[in-house]
Amino acid sequence: MAKIKPSLPQGTRDFGPAVMRKRNYIMQTIREAFQLFGFQPLETPAMEQLDTLTGKYGDEGDQLMFKILNNGESLNKAAAPLAASIQENIPLVRSVRLFAEKALRYDLTIPFARFVSMNQHELAMPFKRYQMQPVWRADRPQKGRYREFYQCDADVVGSDSLLNEIELLLIYDTVFNKLGLQGYELRVNNRKILSGLAELTGRPDLLTDITVAIDKLDKIGMDKVKEELQQRGLGEKEISVIENFLLISGSNDEKLTRLSELLATSPTGMKGIEEISFVLNSGLAQFKATPILDVTLARGLNYYTGMIVEVKAPATVSIGSIGGGGRYDDLTGLFGLPGISGVGISFGVDRIYDVLEQLELFPEAAQQSTKVMFLNLGDASVKVAFPLVMQLRGKGIAAELYHEAAKMDKQMKYADRRAIPYIVILGESELAENKMSIKHLTNREQKTITIAELDGFLFE
Amino acid sequence: MAKIKPSLPQGTRDFGPAVMRKRNYIMQTIREAFQLFGFQPLETPAMEQLDTLTGKYGDEGDQLMFKILNNGESLNKAAAPLAASIQENIPLVRSVRLFAEKALRYDLTIPFARFVSMNQHELAMPFKRYQMQPVWRADRPQKGRYREFYQCDADVVGSDSLLNEIELLLIYDTVFNKLGLQGYELRVNNRKILSGLAELTGRPDLLTDITVAIDKLDKIGMDKVKEELQQRGLGEKEISVIENFLLISGSNDEKLTRLSELLATSPTGMKGIEEISFVLNSGLAQFKATPILDVTLARGLNYYTGMIVEVKAPATVSIGSIGGGGRYDDLTGLFGLPGISGVGISFGVDRIYDVLEQLELFPEAAQQSTKVMFLNLGDASVKVAFPLVMQLRGKGIAAELYHEAAKMDKQMKYADRRAIPYIVILGESELAENKMSIKHLTNREQKTITIAELDGFLFE
């Protein structure tokens, strides 16, 4: 067959060793925190039934979902109905069900909901699960937006306790501290406060419009938000109520006091204030970065009903949100299991990667693979070296023997390209004295030790 | 929208917490070994261009590949040509290219080959990579065969050194020993020996037929193999040469001696013997389970050219092969990069899981999530408990506080279902004395310690 010049599908990426090690470092840090907090691992299949996913992400989601073609006879059978459908001028995107029964998952939440409703009787509630898997979206690729990307989610379902909110904020705090990130912000709000605001304007029916507009404040500024509110049907007086609300400032306590005055007549609003006060002031948890009450935080997704949270990267990197989540009332209603509420958070791995890269926060260990390479100086040297390589591996030190007795130069160059810090030399003179030379490639230090001393040698 | 009863696509699985922990334990053990031996991580996208995959796995592979439907306008554009193609009675499976440009990866080898040829100038050769990702095949689902399953591969490319063969066998040895498996067998052979055999029969042109037939010996027995050889065009005398070869027995050395006599006239066969002798008798490596020369080992895949290996599960579990691999001459020729040879191995995670399960070899740690749960006995108790939970987490101990002040009975039942071994009780009497009770749920022991003593308490 003809040779082809290989390429990657648009919007997808290979992760080579250097990138993989850094990504693994981030994911492992998140995974460990999830586990320390009692969250349990779940993995669901890449494919879901089309029915499971359709209609869950709006029209756009249905469009951007990657559908999987039926195989074999099941595909062939579609020929007749498909021909008929084309005859009637129905666009192919609308007759997908004729030849595709499955699609790639679009997020981790719907598969999680499906799992919970299928396994409700086996699960100990509350069910605390974490899930770290890729999702696929046929978005137009652009800088920082890919068609395959990992989501890292933790959710507690089956519990209304606000302790869960505090725990999830603490997971953020734990992870970003472990990653050495300073100056990030945990911004929280409560959807019920926004409901109270909508009531205050006299337009509770426009809650979604108000939320959507407020959500853009960061990006487009106050004037444009006001314009948008107007376009969405709010009057001057109503907009000024919203503006006053958005301008609330000060410490968390000052904001809470001001909110209590403003929303005194709204039971929903007051409930939101009570909830967020507990989260901020329970005194149970010690945060390294105290969560900030941000009344302008709205988050687009419609299904949030309680606390919402967003993590902002340090201001020095202009990357924006690196995580977010919130409480929802009904996870599994659409799958026939009502009354399952929950709260969840998500980490944006790609953006966290960019932040750590920009701030040079990846530790040495996340940038190293093999620690020690033994030069291959011919059969006599190999005979001594090989068991020593195995000895180091047995102690958990990644070690290699160069694969052939190439020129020293070539072997050193390989070690250099692989960023291997230590080289061990077992040349004729070393062998004669039962010794070896250990060379540190970056600081250029060289030591000679006896072979027996290798076991105690500190490869730092 | 209507509620739907959710289901999973045929042949796919959810991995709930208990299974995930055990799978993670297996994968982590394999990953650590790969890293200790200097292999580097790689991940490629789930989707590849259809052109990258087509024609690489035979007709069957092309059929069983999951293709991904084009999106949006690119799909709609297919309407006219598709209508024409249906008109001409071309089956839809044969006009897939009209509406699908991508497919899910079918194995990890072709994506690896694509990666190597696309990045040849950046890679330090030899390139040692490992890759642990799911692959997808539209096989008819049956016991132990799934449509989504993980492959765990390690390959060295760009080196002909037989040291690589020894290293890869040692990885098997290391992993299966870490997993506590006894009685597994590392069976090796060399494709050049089989070539020698084909020469010996006088039918080198039938090498593939001979290999395919021999490969079935385990399953169908000698008589059926002989039948199949006959069907494949070999005469009685030729078959008896093959039978004599297959009956070679004894120790590795005895087999090697016998082979050397048999294949003395075949330079290729003798080369194979030389290679496998080095792997078995170099004296460099100490195996916990000495590799066994198995002249009947053939392995189906056509592209092997040197050593081949298969790992057999212990005879007490009737599961067969739990890993395999071999040396190949040309990884990337089809992608326009000739001369890249390599050798690789693969672990069968699903089967290893079944073996460990059957032999009850999963350690306690792979079956536990949270180690300590603090009972929730109301606000006063929570105020003391919460910081202590955080203290344990800070020390790397997975700990939880029950989410609400439910009845003790309910909380204990939850801990039991979650298999949490330790319960901490901070009741009124404990609080009054600055103490806590720690109860071990399986051995029923209970201890009372002061709060200050928690830091030193050993949760085993």
TrEMBL record, chains A, B:
<dbReference type="GO" id="GO:0006427">
    <property type="term" value="P:histidyl-tRNA aminoacylation"/>
</dbReference>
<dbReference type="InterPro" id="IPR006195">
    <property type="entry name" value="aa-tRNA-synth_II"/>
</dbReference>
<dbReference type="GO" id="GO:0004821">
    <property type="term" value="F:histidine-tRNA ligase activity"/>
</dbReference>
<dbReference type="InterPro" id="IPR045864">
    <property type="entry name" value="aa-tRNA-synth_II/BPL/LPL"/>
</dbReference>
<feature type="binding site">
    <location>
        <position position="155"/>
    </location>
    <ligand>
        <name>L-histidine</name>
    </ligand>
</feature>
<feature type="binding site">
    <location>
        <position position="137"/>
    </location>
    <ligand>
        <name>L-histidine</name>
    </ligand>
</feature>
<dbReference type="InterPro" id="IPR015807">
    <property type="entry name" value="His-tRNA-ligase"/>
</dbReference>
<feature type="binding site">
    <location>
        <position position="151"/>
    </location>
    <ligand>
        <name>L-histidine</name>
    </ligand>
</feature>
<dbReference type="InterPro" id="IPR004154">
    <property type="entry name" value="Anticodon-bd"/>
</dbReference>
<dbReference type="Pfam" id="PF13393">
    <property type="entry name" value="tRNA-synt_His"/>
</dbReference>
<dbReference type="InterPro" id="IPR004516">
    <property type="entry name" value="HisRS/HisZ"/>
</dbReference>
<feature type="binding site">
    <location>
        <begin position="303"/>
        <end position="304"/>
    </location>
    <ligand>
        <name>L-histidine</name>
    </ligand>
</feature>
<protein>
    <recommendedName>
        <fullName>Histidine--tRNA ligase</fullName>
        <ecNumber>6.1.1.21</ecNumber>
    </recommendedName>
</protein>
<feature type="binding site">
    <location>
        <position position="299"/>
    </location>
    <ligand>
        <name>L-histidine</name>
    </ligand>
</feature>
<dbReference type="InterPro" id="IPR041715">
    <property type="entry name" value="HisRS-like_core"/>
</dbReference>
<dbReference type="Pfam" id="PF03129">
    <property type="entry name" value="HGTP_anticodon"/>
</dbReference>
<comment type="similarity">
    <text>Belongs to the class-II aminoacyl-tRNA synthetase family.</text>
</comment>
<comment type="subunit">
    <text>Homodimer.</text>
</comment>
<dbReference type="GO" id="GO:0005524">
    <property type="term" value="F:ATP binding"/>
</dbReference>
<dbReference type="InterPro" id="IPR036621">
    <property type="entry name" value="Anticodon-bd_dom_sf"/>
</dbReference>
<dbReference type="GO" id="GO:0005737">
    <property type="term" value="C:cytoplasm"/>
</dbReference>
<keyword id="KW-0030">Aminoacyl-tRNA synthetase</keyword>
<keyword id="KW-0648">Protein biosynthesis</keyword>
<feature type="binding site">
    <location>
        <begin position="107"/>
        <end position="109"/>
    </location>
    <ligand>
        <name>L-histidine</name>
    </ligand>
</feature>
<feature type="domain" description="Aminoacyl-transfer RNA synthetases class-II family profile">
    <location>
        <begin position="1"/>
        <end position="387"/>
    </location>
</feature>
<dbReference type="InterPro" id="IPR033656">
    <property type="entry name" value="HisRS_anticodon"/>
</dbReference>
<keyword id="KW-0436">Ligase</keyword>
<keyword id="KW-0963">Cytoplasm</keyword>
<keyword id="KW-0547">Nucleotide-binding</keyword>
<keyword id="KW-0067">ATP-binding</keyword>
